[in-house]
Amino acid sequence: MAKRFIDFFLKRRFQISTIFLLIVSFLIFSGTSHPAIYYMQIWFSDILAPLKEPIVILKELTETRKTNEMLSRHLIQLSQEAARFTSLSEENQRLREMLDLKRTSSYDLLPALVLSEGIHKSVNSLLLNKGKKDSVDVNDPVLNVQGLVGRIFFVGESSSLAQLLVDPNLRVSVKIQPSGAKGILQWYGKNRFLIADISSTLEVKPGNLVVTSGYSDIYPNDLPVGIVSELTPSPDGFTNLVFGDFLVNFNQIHEVFILLQ
Asked: Which of these, 118, 134, 178, 207, could form a disulfide with 130 (CB 3.0-4.6 Å)?
């Protein structure tokens, strides 16, 4: 084995010596400031630059993509945290307002949580988490801190269905403050209502508050319902059609009170 190695070295001693001297020379010259070395280094750089540039660009793109992915994940986390904070803040505000209403109200108010939209196909309703075991009964009024929401129309043992004021079949006896004009309120699409046959001799104008009249066996007196937005003369010429907006946002009901009677 050693003999074969020596023979290989002897046969190629010139080539090996030349390569060794080139390497030593390059190492010596690279540590000097001779102009020839600078030209040689530039020449090597010119050769290597086109090969090295794509590698550098690819590396930067890879690092940029990783950074963007990290920032995107961080942004999503921040967005989720902000949404949770906003949701908790809004829920806290609603619960505070409900607590204040329960504390200041003279009625027996039972807090209830909205579980989902009602399961009754023909009635616009909400499913609540209170029922017979909580003393809930049919026709108990349902309200929140904004105003009247509707009435209970079906009661189970531990849940109930509340018919909403935005149901086409529901009618409520109301009065318009401060004139005291009375009429029957019904839903008129989206978050609006209509009160027909209001005498044109009574002073009713936009901005007036609409409340329950107290004439119904279901709804107590003076529960807030909505605000008058406009008046239109009826065809008979003696009465007005009164249009308004409900106080309750029926698209965002999370908690309610059931007024036990």
From this structure: 134
Predicted confidence (pLDDT) per residue in 14-37, tens digit: 555 555 545 545 544 555 555 555
Contacting residues for 106 by C-beta, under 8 A, at least 6 apart: none
**76-80 long-range contacts, Cβ below 8 Å, gap at least 24?**
none
Q: Judge residue 53's burial from the number of C-beta atoms within 10 Å of its C-beta, 0-12 exposed, 13-18 middle, 19 or more buried.
A: exposed
163 in Cβ contact with 150 (< 8 Å): yes
**Residue from 191, 138, 147, 196 nearest 171 by CA:** 196
Residue 73 pLDDT exceeds 70: no
Query: 141 - beta bridge partners?
Result: 151
Asked if 115 contacts 129 with a C-beta cutoff of 8 angstroms, the reply is yes
Residue 104 has pLDDT above 90, yes or no: no
**119, 161 contact by CB (below 8 A):** yes
> How many C-beta atoms surround the C-beta of residue 110 within 10 A?
18
Q: How far apart are CA 16 and CA 21, in angstroms?
A: 9
Q: 91 or 66, which is more confident?
A: 66
Rounded Cα gap, residues 242 and 188, in angstroms? 11
Q: How far is CA 218 from the centre of its chain?
A: 35
* Second-level CATH architecture of 171-246: Beta Barrel (2.40)
Map tokens 């070295």 to a residue.
Answer: 9
Considering the entire predicted model, what is its pTM? 0.62
Going by C-alpha positions, the residue among 83, 145, 156 that lies closest to residue 115 is 156
Residue with tokens 């008979």: 236
Q: What is the mean pLDDT of the chain?
A: 77
- Residue 153, CA distances (Å) to 116, 162, 164, 230 in order: 16, 6, 10, 31
Degrees, nearest 5: CA angle 197-199-200: 120
